[in-house]
């Protein structure tokens, strides 16, 4: 995640310091999951509504943890917003568009790709091309279209 976030930042032409911050967010964006029981995180069956509520609390918990650390305010904000969606249907607050920090929009794309190409207890891993198709399908709705475009350009650069 850290390397993917850094590389997307590079593809977007961000300054080195911003790319370092992105790499940190890539490492820490899911730190709030430490407060969720492993039985929920690793459950192979569909989650119950109260379990989804626990899952949806991890960005808020991560934000709380990181906000307590001096110098982590920007990373805490990106952690809080990494499950928000461009169309406002994400969580925890239903932010949309430019209300979502750019770092969070980048982490959202990297996290979604990483999640899709990784096997989960409840499903097999997607292929690289399946994951890219899903990102493209969500561009402009779930994901920032510009970030998806940058990620696809990055992939083309290294695979082509």
Describe what this molecule looks like in 3D:
The protein has 160 residues and is mainly α. The protein has a single domain, classed as Orthogonal Bundle (Hypothetical protein af1432). The protein has helices spanning 2-11, 16-28, 38-41, 49-56, 58-67, 73-81, 102-117, 128-138, 145-159. Helix 1 runs antiparallel to helix 2 (16-28), helix 2 (16-28) packs across helix 6 (73-81) and helix 7 packs antiparallel against helix 8 (128-138). The mean pLDDT is 94.
Text of the CATH class: Mainly Alpha
Could you report the average pLDDT, rounded to the nearest whole number? 94
Number of separate domains: 1
In which range does the helix fraction lie? 55-70%
Structural category is mainly alpha
CATH architecture label: Orthogonal Bundle
CATH level-4 homologous superfamily = Hypothetical protein af1432
Distance between the termini: 21 Å
Beta-strand content bin? under 5%
Radius of gyration: 15 Å
Largest sheet: none
Any idea what the shape is? globular
Fold topology:
Layout: H1 2-11, H2 16-28, H3 38-41, H4 49-56, H5 58-67, H6 73-81, H7 102-117, H8 128-138, H9 145-159
Helix pairs in contact: 1-2, 2-6, 2-7, 5-6, 6-7, 7-8, 8-9
Short description:
Helices cover 60% and strands 0% of the residues.
């Amino acid at each position: 995640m850290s390397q993917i976030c850094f590389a997307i930042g590079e593809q977007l032409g961000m300054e080195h310091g911003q790319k370092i911050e992105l790499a940190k967010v890539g490492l820490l964006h899911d730190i709030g999951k430490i407060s969720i029981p492993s039985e929920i995180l690793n459950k192979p069956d569909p989650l119950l509504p109260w379990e989804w509520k626990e899952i949806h609390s991890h960005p808020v918990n991560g934000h709380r943890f990181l906000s307590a650390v001096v110098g982590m305010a920007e990373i805490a904000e990106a952690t809080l917003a990494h499950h928000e969606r461009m169309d406002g249907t994400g969580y925890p607050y239903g932010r949309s568009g430019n209300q979502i920090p750019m770092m969070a929009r980048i982490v959202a794309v990297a996290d979604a790709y990483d999640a899709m190409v990784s096997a989960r207890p409840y499903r097999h891993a997607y292929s690289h091309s399946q994951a890219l198709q899903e990102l493209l399908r969500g561009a402009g709705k779930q994901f920032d279209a510009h970030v998806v475009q940058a990620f696809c350009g990055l992939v083309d650069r290294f695979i082509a």
